Amino acid sequence: MKASRRIGAVLIAVAGAIMIAFLLLPMIAVYLDMAPGKLWEQLTTPVALKALQLSVVTTFISLGLILLFGTPLAYFLANHNFPGKRVLEVLLQLPIVIPPAVAGVGLLLVFGRFGLIGQWLSGMGIDIAFTAAAVVMAQSFVAAPFYIQGARTAFSSIDPALVSVSRTLGVSKTKTFFRVVLPLSLPGLISGAALSWGRALGEFGATIMFAGNLPGKTQTLPLAIYSAMQSNLGVAIAISALLITVAFFLLLLVKLAELWPKLKRKSRKKGGTRDAQLQHS
Amino acid sequence: MKSLKSVAVLLVLAIFAAGCGSGNGESGKIEKGGNGKSQFAGEELAVYAAAHLTETFSEMEKVFEKKTGAEVTINFAGTQTLRTQIEQGAPADVFASANLGHMKAVKKQGFVEKYKTFGYNTLTVIIPKSNPAGLKDFKDLAQKDYKLVMGVDNVPIGIYTRQVLANAAKKYGSDFEKKVMDNVVSFGPNVKKVAGKVALGAADAGFIYVSGLTPSVEKKVKTLQIPKNINVVATDTIAVVKTGDHPELGKKWIEFVMSEEGQQILADHHLIPLDEKKK
Fold it and tell me: Do A230 and B52 lie within an 8 Å CB cutoff?
């Protein structure tokens, strides 16, 4: 009995170690490929800098649009029941699992020069595909579901009684949203937004299809990696290292956002200041 | 409107410059060059090109921009992606394809009128300079015991490698292919990975495109030529796209790619220029 239990424990440990090594080694290898000084040198090449600038600008515009249009939708889904709601929610999650290249083709079929809406826009002299606007749309398409999902869960977990109390005290609906609902769901919203931004930053397949790989215009960091793979592997690895680093801190932020309410509660219970509490934990 | 204005300004400047040139009594030839520049100065050219042309076309871009004063933007992606984009009305002026099938399909749909072959890509076997397995020619690949790497069977390089082996089997006997495959220790997802393994000495031989012989790889490897009657040839074709806004400039780009200078750049990056194929 005891021996078999021990073998079981060893097997679990080995399986776990293999999984950890499999997931971490490829990311670590990127950093081992060259010295940090060389890495920095490759990152400051014009190609990398242009792509970095474009990535920063487009992902923040994408995030802004996702927050603006996604928050009301998530709030509505959290507070209303209607026939077909489940189906709608599944459909809204689809962009997460469909291959990004398929998303890119879909966007082209709608907004391309011959597309459903595109041909009509083109008649008015507006071409979206193969511009920076197309980059933003590709990113928003694949990234929005992460935020909508996160925000919907955060809104759902708020005790409805708190909202009722606020309303019976005569506080308007809008004020209740900003004074009660938003502060309580903030950690969930932040983590949803961070995941969403991370997905937008790494977006490749839909972008290269719908926006093209035009240096300085639509070539974001992941596309620059792709192009550099064909010529200068050093630049490709340097950008990869940058993206992995950014992603790491992003996930750290997500974890902190999730822990935040707990830390706050703890510090209140013990009556200590939050700073003291943080030092303890 | 704005871009029209800047084109006009550049035009005036260029004509002025050309005028100055002739005023200084320069030769007619240079004056002609000046006129060519004024015609396209500031105009934007969108070239949609297959990914393996990244280095080659990037270098051509610099030379062409200097020559014409035009502004070239190149969209490098897989040929299949470029084809889809063109079919959906992408503002492409020029399409350079790594695969004849895709070019033919685009032509059939009326997006291009005619296309031209501008170069070829073919396969070669690379071995480390130290040649630890003592491989001397292509036939040795089926006779010796060594470590071989090749592309996975669903990427172009892997498909071409298997075609070469199938051709060799027809020529040298059916067990040739099997004997070579017995030596495979690893399948790489792309040419870069295969070349890297051989360059680092982790493998004794590998199949790659000749265009994969970049300077950093070339420093560390030798090549075993694949006999011409066995080797496969990928044809690179180029065409002006009808949905583009600058057909004249597009024609100029193609002329440049086909010119002696363009073909030389092609050869510098280990693609096979037109006249070399004929030899």
Answer: yes
- Say whether A231 and B54 touch across the interface (CB within 8 A): yes
Q: In chain B, which residues have their Cβ closer than 8 Å to the Cβ of A100?
A: none
Q: Which two tokens stand for residue B24?
A: 């200084």
Cβ pairs bridging A and B (under 8 Å): 65
The four Cα atoms A11, A17, A18, A24 give a dihedral, to 10 degrees, of 170
- Short-list B198, B197, B179, B167, CA closest to B141: B179
Using only C-alpha atoms, what is the Rg of chain A? 23
Query: Alpha carbon of B150 to those of A191, B121, B202, B203, B230: distances in Å?
Result: 43, 17, 13, 10, 17
Give the whole-angstrom CA distance, residue B239 versus residue B103.
8
- Mean pLDDT within B77-82: 86
Residue A50 in contact with partner chain B when CB distance is under 8 A: no
CB B141 within 8 A of CB B180: yes
∠ CA A116-B49-A233, nearest 5°, is: 115
- Dihedrals phi, psi of A203, to nearest 5 degrees: -60, 130
Do B89 and A114 make contact, defined as CB atoms within 8 angstroms?
yes
B85 touches chain A (CB under 8 A): yes
Pick B90's closest partner by Cβ from A212, A216, A226. Answer: A212
- Note the pTM of the prediction, 2 decimals: 0.71
Going by pLDDT thresholds of 50, 70 and 90, the confidence category of residue A143 is very high
In Å, the largest CA–CA distance within chain A is 78
Phi then psi dihedrals of residue B127, to 5 deg? -135, 155
Two tokens, residue A96: 């997460």
**Is the interface score ipTM higher than 0.85?**
no
Strands B112-128 and B233-241, bridge-based pairing: antiparallel
Above 60 in pLDDT, residue A277? no
| Min distance B77 CA to chain A CA atoms (Å) | 7
Distance CA B85, CA B67 (A): 29
Task: Name residues 234-263 of chain B within 8 A of A (Cβ).
Answer: 243
The yes-or-no verdict on residue A276 having pLDDT over 70 is no
Chain A residues close to B91, C-beta within 8 Å: 113, 127, 130
B100-150 pLDDT, tens digit per residue, is 888 999 999 999 999 999 999 889 999 999 888 889 889 889 888 899 999
Residues A155-179 have a mean pLDDT of 89
Find the closest chain A residue to B58 by CA distance: A231
Q: Which of A114, A209, A217 sits opposite B81 (nearest CB)?
A: A209
Q: Where does the pLDDT of residue A270 fall: very low under 50, low under 70, confident under 90, or very high at 90 and above? A: low
